[in-house]
């Protein structure tokens, strides 16, 4: 069956004058052609994922390529059966990638147009994966890594990207005298983070050009040495990368069985992304911990209109009780 929806993943570091007005104008255009998606606009550039039919996405790409400084912007294109977004958002932010530098020191931020790591093609990156003297570092959030990652890549002990610089500083003995290559979904985070590593004094820093998304489409490597699926920030949740020898590496949060289905913890104050089957989601009330399961605002309980007796029954089945409710 023909796939008539295209999903566009893209970014570009380019100075944007009056970025707040640019964002407003950009949103108006996107809505005028019926595009759906999520776009961040900052003084330092633009970063987005959008979806629509062929005609709509072509109009959008032509529009972006007509904008000053964006004539060569690189769109990574997926073909899908359904829309990847329900609405259209364009937001202005201070940065399109927040590196977590001390005290939000934007003046001391990394400018990838001036400092960034060496670009590696998919073939060169695959060679780096096989090189015992090269350290491969995943720069994404923990839940992205847990769903899929390159074989042998280091998983930093962090919850999100903002924590990565400090983690590297705390573990610099692992990297300082070695070649380091980094990767992320589409390349936008690595542009800035590899530049930060260069500024920190690392001598040989590389990055996967175009990110995992490009690696999976390369006709030569065909996604080989990638395990699991790639997490994406839209309705699809995940996409296939390895077309040679794919394997499932995601593990159910509750019982450790193979799983590639993500949900958010039912406790809105936690909201942790967890892998779990529908069966275990029901069994554990979509709560990643006892505290989240019994939280007074548990969304799973509300969505399924469960009575207190029903909640107590499910908790008893897993050896827990409703003895303590967490206050709002």
Overview of this structure, please?
- Strand 12 (230-231) and strand 13 (238-239) form a beta hairpin.
- With 328 residues, this protein is of the alpha/beta class.
- It contains 11 helices and 15 strands.
- This is tRNA uridine(34) hydroxylase.
Give a topology summary:
Elements: E1 5-13, H1 19-33, E2 36-42, E3 45-53, H2 54-65, E4 76-80, E5 88-92, E6 118-120, H3 122-129, E7 134-138, H4 142-147, E8 148-150, H5 164-170, E9 179-183, H6 188-199, E10 205-208, H7 211-217, E11 226-228, E12 230-231, E13 238-239, E14 262-264, E15 273-275, H8 278-283, H9 290-293, H10 299-303, H11 308-317
Parallel strand pairs: 2-5, 6-10, 7-9, 9-10
Antiparallel strand pairs: 1-3, 1-4, 2-3, 8-11, 12-13, 14-15
Structure summary:
By secondary structure, this protein is an alpha/beta fold. It has 11 helices and 15 strands.
Question: Key features?
Answer:
single chain; 328 residues; Alpha-Beta Plaits; Oxidized Rhodanese, domain 1; 3 domains; five-stranded mixed β-sheet; four-stranded parallel β-sheet; oxidoreductase activity, acting on paired donors, with incorporation or reduction of molecular oxygen; EC 1.14.-.-; tRNA uridine(34) hydroxylase; Rhodanese-like_dom_sf; oxidoreductase
């Amino acid at each position: 069956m023909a796939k008539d929806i295209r999903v566009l993943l893209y970014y570009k570091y380019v100075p944007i004058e009056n970025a707040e007005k640019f964002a407003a104008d950009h949103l108006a255009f996107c809505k005028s052609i019926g595009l759906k998606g999520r776009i961040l606009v900052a003084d330092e550039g633009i970063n987005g994922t959008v979806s629509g039919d062929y005609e709509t996405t072509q109009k959008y790409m032509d529009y972006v390529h007509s904008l000053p400084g964006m004539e060569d912007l690189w769109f990574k294109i997926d073909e899908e059966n359904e829309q990847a977004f329900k609405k259209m958002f364009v937001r202005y932010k201070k940065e399109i990638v927040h590196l977590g530098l001390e005290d939000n020191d934007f003046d001391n931020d990394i400018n990838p147009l001036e400092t960034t790591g060496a670009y590696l093609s998919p073939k060169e990156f695959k060679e780096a994966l096989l090189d015992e003297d090269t350290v491969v570092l995943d720069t994404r959030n923990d839940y992205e890594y847990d769903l899929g990652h390159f074989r042998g890549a280091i998983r930093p002990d962090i919850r999100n990207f903002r924590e990565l610089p400090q983690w590297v500083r705390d573990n610099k003995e692992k990297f300082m005298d070695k070649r380091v290559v980094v990767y992320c979904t589409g390349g936008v985070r690595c542009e800035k983070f590899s530049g930060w590593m260069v500024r920190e004094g690392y001598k040989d820093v590389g990055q996967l050009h175009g990110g995992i998304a490009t690696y999976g489409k390369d006709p030569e490597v065909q996604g080989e040495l990638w395990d699991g699926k790639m997490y994406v920030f839209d309705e699809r949740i995940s996409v296939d990368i390895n077309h040679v020898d794919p394997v499932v590496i995601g593990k159910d949060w509750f019982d450790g069985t193979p799983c590639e289905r993500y949900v958010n913890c039912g406790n809105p104050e936690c909201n942790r992304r967890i892998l779990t089957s529908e069966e275990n989601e029901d069994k554990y009330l979509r709560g990643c911990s006892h505290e989240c399961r019994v939280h007074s605002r548990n969304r799973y309980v509300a969505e399924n209109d469960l009575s207190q007796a029903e909640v107590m029954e499910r908790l008893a089945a897993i050896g827990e009780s409703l003895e303590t409710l967490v206050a709002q």
